[in-house]
Write a structure and sequence with these properties.
Blueprint (H helix, E strand, L loop, with lengths): L1 H8 L10 H15 L5 E5 H5 L13 E6 L2 E6 L3 E3 L4 E3 L6 H18 L3 E2 L1 H13 L5 H16 L1 E9 L2 E8 L1 E3 L18 E3 L1 H10 E5 H6 L4 H13 L9 E4 H8 L6 H18 L4 E4 L3 E5 L11 E2 L2 E2 L7
Antiparallel strand pairs: 1-11, 2-3, 3-7, 4-5, 6-10, 7-8, 9-10, 12-14, 13-14, 15-16
Helix pairs in contact: 1-2, 1-11, 4-6, 9-11, 10-11
Length: 322
Amino acid sequence: MAGKQLSLIGDEHEPQPLSPVRRRLLDAAGEIAAGGPDELAFQHSVCCQCALPTARPGPEVFVWDKRQGRARLRVEAGSVLDPTTGAFVRPGLPYGPKARLLLMHLNSEAIRGGSPVIPIEETMTAFFRRLMGRKQDGRQAAMLKRQLTALAAAHFHIGIVRDEDQAVQMNAQLVAAFDLWFPTEPGQRVLWPSTLRLSLDYFESLTRYAVPLDERAIAALAHSATALDVYCWLAQRLHRIPDGKPQFVPWPALHEQFGQEYARLRDFRRFFLGTLRQVRAAYQEAGVDADGRGITLRQSPPPVRKRLAVLRECAIGRADAE
């Protein structure tokens, strides 16, 4: 089994010292192959198809538009009140792997609790340790704080086109209210606010369109925004492909969806193939083949087999048989 896992992750030639990322992928691949997850993560279906920026947008970029298939996502940077100056400031757009991990954390706590009110203070430290594999230090906490502030302030427009003359759209801030300016202890330890409240519009949309994910896979891919995006995309797409009717996605379309940092298609293709190997280590049943023209997607079981989860009073999916 170890040889198979290594072939998914990288070069199969002479043994090389394992980097922390490769070691984390190998460990996760073994755990995932051994059985189902103890913890689930959740992402909104539209955010599985249309992701946030992978890298920090330019200083004058305050709007982010993405579309893929029938899904549409528009994110507009908001403003927050700085108590030290009394002025509104713009924290910018949420971006990178930490914004994605935080969004999944908020989604997961809301789904697990069946409530838009999330106990941040009680869950943030445990979340960080599970997904990042280490204790929270001042630098990492500050980065999480900036991304959480950007997420809380941003306005999200989430839409799904149903047919030529009908679309469903949700316009809201994801977070309705919380203390954006975190107090700090003398030792520079960030004190998280006790609770955070999601907007009711987003919470209702999430409970209808949440995609369950294996938290072990999320932790293994937490180093890369694109790896998280590809995993989420495959998790919501592969099980919906008709059996025996594979779907082909050409490289230019993949470049448009995942390659914002790459001007040349050939550079993106090399990067994507490396990322796909990492994703397949965490999602080993993913039916994906690549060639010089693009990738072919085949019907595959979702990474979380059970498509119906009722946690307290909150139903978030439908059984595979439906």
